[in-house]
Design a protein that fits this description.
Strand content: 35-45%
Strand order of the largest sheet: 8-7-17-16-13-14
Number of strands: 17
Distance between the termini: 18 Å
Largest sheet: 6 strands, antiparallel
Length: about 180
């Protein structure tokens, strides 16, 4: 899990096994030396699976009979990487501190009716999709008004890597792929 010092905002990767059955642990920031408490996040509910091909509503236009946009094609080998945990950590915005573990190779993020609901008024109802193909992941904006931003630039499609941050609305999200911790270790 990714934690952030509340004083200097330095980010750290923290292995959840350090909680050893506790609901929280105390830590000291290596940067500013301040003490802070880290709470073990509640386990998110598994995201419901969505069809193999997501039909995305077309951008507003004068033509009402346009077909929906296909984000990926059938048989595009969407799968989560073996032995890895793919997560989205909210680092800024109304849900700051929440972590969502991906249980599906395709998830839709948005304000309502999506796999991961981001309660941010600046986020579109269906804002973006993350598609995972083993060790690779792609972030796709769904033609939103406010856009999806990576490294200060609005994107239509962007290849995600471990620790890539992106912003939708006023919410900043950190994408991570980490090794799965074995219970037998």
């Amino acid at each position: 899990m990714i934690v952030q010092c509340p004083h200097c905002l330095t980010k750290y990767s923290l292995d959840e096994s350090r909680f050893s059955g506790s609901a929280s642990i105390r830590g000291r920031c290596k940067n500013c030396q301040s003490l802070f408490t880290v709470d073990l996040p509640a386990k998110p509910q598994p995201a419901p699976s969505i069809p193999a091909v997501a039909e995305v509503p077309p951008p507003p236009s004068s033509s009402s009979n346009m077909e929906g946009t296909r984000v990926s094609t059938v048989g595009a080998s969407l799968r989560l990487p073996y032995g890895k945990v793919v997560s989205l950590s909210i680092t800024e915005g109304p849900l700051k501190g929440q972590i969502f573990r991906l249980n599906s190779a395709r998830v839709v993020l948005g304000r309502s009716g999506t796999d991961i609901v981001i309660a941010d008024p600046e986020v579109s109802r269906r804002h973006c999709i993350i598609e995972v193909r083993g060790p690779q992941a792609t972030l796709v904006d769904l033609g939103t008004t406010n856009g999806t931003v990576v490294e200060g630039k609005q994107i239509a499609r962007h290849e995600l890597e471990h620790l890539t941050e992106f912003r939708i609305g006023t919410t900043t999200i950190l994408f991570t792929i980490t090794d799965q911790v074995s219970a037998h270790a």
